[in-house]
Protein: von Willebrand factor type A domain-containing protein
Organism: Humibacillus xanthopallidus
Amino acid sequence: MELTGLDLRFPAVLVVGLLVAVVATVAVTRHLARRSAHATAAVANTSALTALPEYRRALRTHRIRMAVLAASAVLLGGAALVGAARPVDTTVERPETRNRDIMLCLDISGSMAAYDAELVSTFKRLVTRFEGERIGLVIFNSSAATVFPLTDDYDFINEELDVAGRALAGDPDLESFFAGTFNGRGTSLIGDGLATCVSSFDRIDTQRPRSLVFATDNHLAGRPIIDVVEAGELAKAKGVRVYGLNPEEDGVDREAVEMRQVVEGTAGRYFAMSDTSAIGGIVDAVQAQEAALIDSSARALQTDNPVVPITLAGLGLVGVIGASRRWSS
């Protein structure tokens, strides 16, 4: 944070006010001069009066009081003008935020619905503790569809995750949620789904750590355009760390071994659903990944600072009241 000093929000008020004060002073001075010239009358033998010590003392006191009154009035008026011009402190702030991107990539074939719903529910609770993280959601079966892109609008994220949870739980009114995921041939085209999710991250913003939660039954049925190994290489090239959840692991099968190699090759972790802490483990692993410290755009903050004009106006007012009372007495 950098303080650039005191500034005026409406400097034109001060300029206009000073011009008005100068014009008013000139006008009043001329008026008083003309009035004094017309009111002049000769009085004889005044030297004896003006030579008296009491007269000289009273005249000196009067002049001092008038000078104090004039100075106080100028101080009061000037402080009021400065206050009307709104003095502000201008501060340039360059905030730093810790950010990361998290993409949920869910296989929505029939055997995955319950696990997907649990993952969505867990992340919905997790969003309440996020600050700066961006979340996105992609679903796939024979083809992939983006439910919502990476965003940090948490109200929107919660609404979309709520809809996803209800759809995955079998709400018949939300069948449209799965639109766009049946445009290919086959089911659970894992490589295509993973590649689509990886490609959903920004192409430019590489400062933010990227995590991809990849849940699939790992049962390929069809011919994908990109196989899972190629998709894993794409993730590595883009700096995406994949956390894989495989609910359908049956012993040490070839597909499970391949999926483990792919996700661990991205510096991510593999979880079998036989592990009762799998979903919690994914969440903990994603949170443990250190977020990047990123400089946000500089912004100027203006804060009202009326202390000086208020203090000066108060002093001027005290001077005007005090000098007026003594003078009137």
Notes: The first strand starts at residue 2 and ends at 8. DSSP finds ten helices and eleven strands in the chain. Residues 17 and 23 are 10 Å apart (CA to CA). Residues 53-84 form the longest helix (32 residues).
